[in-house]
Amino acid sequence: MKNIILTGDRPTGNLHIGHYVGSLKTRIELQNQGDFEQYYVMIADTQALTDNANNVDKVKNNIIQVAIDYISAGIDPNKVCIFIQSMVPELFEITAYFMNLVSVSRLQRNPTIKDEIKQRGFDKSLPIGFLNYPVSQAADILAFNANIVPVGEDQIPVIEVTREVAHSFNNCYGQIFREVKGLLPQTKICARLPGLDGKLKMSKSAGNSIYLCDDEKTVREKIMSAYTDPGHIKVSDPGKIEGNIVFAYLDAFCRDEHFQKYLPEYQNLKQLKEHYKKGGLGDVKVKLFLNSIVNELLSPIREKRKQLEENIDDVYQILFDGSLKARAAAQQTLAKMKDAMGLDYKKLQNK
Ligand code: TRP
């Protein structure tokens, strides 16, 4: 059977360049390689509500923002089915059957969930829906019989729950689901891009992000304020690369051809780093170089975004059409599951 790819994001804010190198770039490469039978990208509104119960408007308004981010960054709705989670209600029925196959303590011990519970201050009062989101995510993936799930590093333990659910279901009711694989970005820096402040991972809640929709001036200001090496005061001082965010971003975004274009005195990143470490290379020069690279990436995305923003109804239509298609696929899986489980009451009638 050919590959079925599924991935998704919670619509809680615009996507940033951490999402770009951490997942969007891989998704677009997979799309262009074309080695799949189906390819789904889900906007996980219901999952977003598991820690935003009082913020329905935020989730609702960000659905279109995330869709615009996807399409402007290069996800092609003719090749990829983009859909809204809550518009496929079969996912919740599938979740209900899966919930019987996972123990509470198993979820509580999951390292990603454990961290997220702490971050959100849920240690005192944990919503059942939040603890359960990995099970609902197993439904998102298995409903489409997906075998490849491109995600960021922190989602690997969550995908592990999907794998366990698939095994349990197969053992309990018969072989229906195949092996699921989480697909990480190739480099570590891309899997976990740090924020501008140099402390946390780039994230909306930490306020340390460069968004795909940021204009040129904003990007420049943000890059100019990025954390470098506080010991590198004079240009002649030797500088540190470790923990230096500007170099971390260059690791993620810079290619040799960028040097020919924007900084021809150097051939590659290695040379630039050597000079910085030795002393004699100022932060501003490196920052302006990074700024050119980031703007080269973002300017076509901004253009596309402008066009899409003028045709919002068309973008919604893409999501509604995608959701119908996704729903038809999930209905088939649910029917197969119920059949395997023996939940076929109609067969009990003698006609
Ligand atoms: N949990 C993912 C995140 O926070 C979003 C998500 C929901 C997802 N369902 C999914 C990712 C299914 C991959 C597959 O980023």
Structure description:
A 3-stranded parallel sheet has the order 1-2-3. The chain has 351 residues and is mostly helical. 54% of the residues lie in helices and 6% in strands. The longest helix has 30 residues, at 312-341. The chain contains 16 helices and 5 strands. The chain folds into 2 domains: 4-193 and 312-350, HUPs (Rossmann fold), CATH 3.40.50.620; 216-306, Tyrosyl-Transfer RNA Synthetase (Orthogonal Bundle). Strand 1 (4-9), helix 1 and strand 2 form a beta-alpha-beta unit. Bound molecules: tryptophan (TRP).
Topology:
Layout lengths: L3 E6 L7 H17 L4 E6 L1 H5 L6 H18 L7 E4 L5 H9 L5 H5 L2 H9 L8 H4 L1 H10 L5 E3 L5 H18 L7 E3 L4 H4 L24 H9 L20 H9 L2 H7 L6 H10 L4 H27 L2 H30 L10
Parallel strand pairs: 1-2, 2-3, 4-5
Helix pairs in contact: 3-15, 4-8, 4-16, 8-9, 11-15, 12-15
Bound molecules: tryptophan.
The site of tryptophan (TRP) has 14 residues, from strand 1 and helix 8.
- What is the correct CATH architecture of the largest domain? 3-Layer(aba) Sandwich
Radius of gyration: 23 Å
Question: What is the helix/strand order?
Answer: EHEHHEHHHHHEHEHHHHHHH
Could you tell me which ligands this complex binds, including any ions or cofactors?
Answer: tryptophan
**What structural class do helix, strand and pairing data support?**
mainly alpha
Strand order of the largest sheet: 1-2-3
Name of the CATH first level of the largest domain: Alpha Beta
The CATH superfamily of the largest domain is identified as HUPs
- The proportion of residues forming helix, as a percent range, comes to 40-55%
SS field, number of helical segments: 16
The strand count comes to 5
For the report, how would you describe the main beta sheet?
Answer: 3 strands, parallel
How many domains? The number is 2
Per the CATH scheme, the topology name of the largest domain is Rossmann fold
Question: Uncertain spans, ≥5 residues at pLDDT below 50?
Answer: none
Inertia-based shape: elongated
Q: What percent strand? A: 5-15%
What distance lies between the first and last C-alpha atoms, to the nearest angstrom? 37 Å
What's the average pLDDT?
95
